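Researcher: I'm preparing a figure for a lab meeting and need a structural model of a single chain. I don't have an experimental structure, so a prediction will have to do for now. The sequence is pasted below. Please return the structure as tokens so I can convert it later.
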Amino acid sequence: MRAPAAVLSALLFACAAAAPSRGQQISDEAALAKLRAEIVQLIGDAPCANLVHCRALALGWKPCGGPAEYLAYGTVSGKGDLIQAKATEYSILYEDVERTKGVGGACVALPPPRVNCVDNRCRVDSGR
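Model: Understood. Here is the structure written out token by token.
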């Protein structure tokens, strides 16, 4: 009868080790906020000379697929590749955090927005 107790104990320990702690979740959420702030800082004023310099940046993850939000950025700064890499990192961490929280909700996919160059700044078109 000792063997089943030892196996059960080992399984409980393994499950506890695999489950993220509340502290880890808070740490991941803090890392997510820091990463988003880095992205916003990299985007800066999203400079553009005309529309061809503007892009929509997908951020986050929704349970049914697609991004949680979009930000506009400009390619004039030459930081487009770095911004895209940070956005990918953000979206992966975002998905992990949301799955840990067990967040659900309506399955509504955000279509990519139109972006405009207004006053030499890329902006997401809010006139949808």
